[in-house]
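Hi Y.,

Following your request, here is the sequence exactly as I used it, all 484 residues.
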Amino acid sequence: MILNSADDSKQRKTIPIVAEPAGSDDEAMVSLYAAAKKIYPRSVEGIFAYWRWIFVFATQIVFYGLPWLEWGTRQAVLFDLASRRFYIFGLVLYPQDFIYLTGLLVISALALFLFTAVAGRLWCGFACPQTVYSEIFLWIERKIEGDRSARMRLDDADFSLEKLVKKWYKHTIWIFFSIWTGFTFVGYFTPIRELAMEFFLTRMGPWELFWVFFYAFATYGNAGFMREQVCKYMCPYARFQSAMFDNDTLIVTYDTERGEPRGPRSKKVELASSNLGACVDCTLCVQVCPTGIDIRNGLQYECIGCGACADVCDTVMDKMGYARGLVRFSTQNAMENKWTSREMWQRLMRPRIQIYTMILGAIVIALLVSLSLRTPFKVDVVRDRSTLSRITEYGTLENVYRLQIMNAAEHAQTYRLLVRGLPQLKITTDTEVMVDPAQARWIVLRADVPYGSTEPGSHKIQFEIQAVGSDHFVVEKSVFIVPR
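Below is the corresponding structure, written out as tokens. Let me know if you'd prefer a different format.
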């Protein structure tokens, strides 16, 4: 698939060449910097705009509301880095559960590949944080400064009290919203109720304060100023998306055969007698585009697949009395072969998509099964390196171990300790240990055998730790040292 470039003359200001005489020769200094023209997206209504706002509300309700939910006596979702515990509702994960994070990242990557192969940049156009926050900031800007033409006039106008008040009011709301966003983000790593109390009492720790304002600054800058620049120049997804596209991928397309030759005309003129295509060359598709491209020039890497141009074009077609779909989601094969919608959707379930779906489904099922069968506690065994082995006053040979028992359950749990691997090997310390809910406890464990009953050397043994009152148990390997 070829991604065409947008018309640079519409997007950039030309920087003049400055020529200066130097001695007998003329030297020309050429600036390689081309200033990007500010984009003023026009508001639009339609099915894709409707779905985009659904995703805005859904993602932000989850983001801002989730940290305030409680699960028992704690925060429902909390990534407690200080104590190295991740709480996700009834699930408590430790650093040893890193495999689940790996599985989640693999699922996310495969899902992105699947959605991209099916319908292009769905993530970018509807659910990406950059898109979501840009929509929110644009909505605030429109409410204060007006729609596209009003904002353009305000920016071009000379300094005035009205301009000062509107700009100040807009940036104040932007900054407040950004700080709220940064505060919520940190609330996933520090209990948010404690963080709120510390915030209002100005007692926040330096790291919490840094990350609140760092994330606020990133939100303010990316959604308020950079916007499409992030999608066009900073996001790597725009650059490698074409590797996941094929001729059966749903993309935003302009029907050139139906739309050309384009040109303005009166509503009273019949389309058949106008010697023109359906496109009235109103440029509204360019005005509503958040990245400022002209979809009539073909698919470009800047296109985020939001469908705003399709929405506004359908509105124009309705006013002109023409059929909708001059700009629509379709595939290259469907456009070239004039497939019906049914034929196009049938082709979407091609082998590539089926393979992605099967692999993704298998990994999701495997991860869910692993979580359901997961033992609700973990054990680490560490030998005491200060003393490899010693003879006790009772005539036994003793080795000392340190056990860390991590209780991932939401209630206190008692664990029974057993050791196997050598004849007459036994534990001489307490064999039952209680650990508080979602806590970890280190214990010192001593194991011994009668002196002389075992040959010198390193012998493999196993510690079996069982949760009292349940069938869950963990077996950890270690060694018992018998000196020569």
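The chain has two domains: 38-372, 377-482.

Thanks again,
Q.
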